[in-house]
């Protein structure tokens, strides 16, 4: 009887591999969501058809694809290159993240100059105001990333490398959540509503919520759960 109890306790202590594999497969589906949402917006925008078309195109490319892929690269379950050395992941993260920032700045420039051409006022909607804030905080977050990479810089040296990484990850997840809120507002903009229907709008919002949830869950798993191993 005692041996049976011990055996049952051991089975409970060892995680079910099949459950872990299923969870990994589900989490990897986020890449399909990211690619699908990006392609949808790009297809609707028809890049090159007008100056405005580059705004949704570059924003979708930057936030829905490049940035999420840069973040998920470090996830044990969601990463498509989980077995690659961390140094390589860091390098690829920088490449994708820098590309995302460039795309965001390009998308911002496109809508800014497009409004100038038609003599329209800037930042008259929640989407526009939050969009400006999003671009600013993403640039600041990228500068913080420089401190993580070069921890001996004056300001960065005030914290330990582990603390810098944790701060960068937590701020990054909040910035991406902020970005997804801006995206959701964009899905109810005049342009998107005119070119889609309520089902596409709802599906796009759900997709953005899914992306932000995966990112926040990844950061919490990496830094939140490890602080309380006994729980």
UniProtKB/TrEMBL annotation:
Presence of keyword Translocase: no
Subcellular location, record wording: Membrane
Keywords: Electron transport, Heme, Iron, Membrane, Metal-binding, Transmembrane, Transmembrane helix, Transport
Domain of life per record: Eukaryota
SMART domains in UniProt: B561
GO MF annotation terms: metal ion binding; transmembrane ascorbate ferrireductase activity; transmembrane monodehydroascorbate reductase activity
EC number: 7.2.1.3
Organism: Stylophora pistillata
Membrane topology summary: Multi-pass membrane protein
Record-given protein name: ascorbate ferrireductase (transmembrane)
Cofactor: heme b
Key word Cytoplasm present: no
Transmembrane residue ranges: 25-45, 51-74, 94-113, 125-150, 171-192, 198-221
């Amino acid at each position: 009887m005692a041996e049976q109890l011990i055996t049952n306790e051991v089975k409970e202590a060892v995680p079910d591999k099949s459950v872990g594999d299923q969870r990994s497969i589900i989490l990897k589906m986020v890449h399909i969501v990211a690619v699908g949402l990006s392609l949808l917006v790009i297809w609707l925008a028809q890049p090159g058809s007008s100056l405005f078309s580059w705004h949704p195109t570059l924003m979708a490319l930057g936030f829905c694809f490049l940035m999420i892929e840069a973040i998920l690269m470090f996830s044990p379950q969601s990463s498509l290159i989980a077995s690659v050395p961390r140094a390589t992941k860091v390098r690829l993260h920088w490449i994708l993240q820098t590309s995302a920032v460039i795309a965001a700045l390009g998308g911002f420039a496109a809508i800014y100059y497009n409004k100038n051409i038609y003599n329209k006022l800037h930042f008259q909607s929640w989407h526009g105001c939050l969009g400006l804030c999003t671009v600013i905080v993403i640039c600041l977050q990228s500068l913080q990333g420089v401190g993580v990479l070069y921890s001996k810089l004056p300001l960065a040296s005030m914290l330990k490398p582990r603390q810098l990484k944790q701060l960068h990850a937590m701020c990054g997840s909040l910035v991406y959540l902020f970005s997804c809120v801006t995206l959701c507002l964009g899905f109810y903009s005049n342009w998107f509503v005119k070119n889609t229907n309520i089902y596409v709008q709802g599906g796009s919002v759900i997709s953005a919520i899914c992306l932000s949830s995966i990112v926040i869950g990844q950061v919490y798993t990496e830094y939140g759960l490890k602080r309380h191993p006994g729980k």
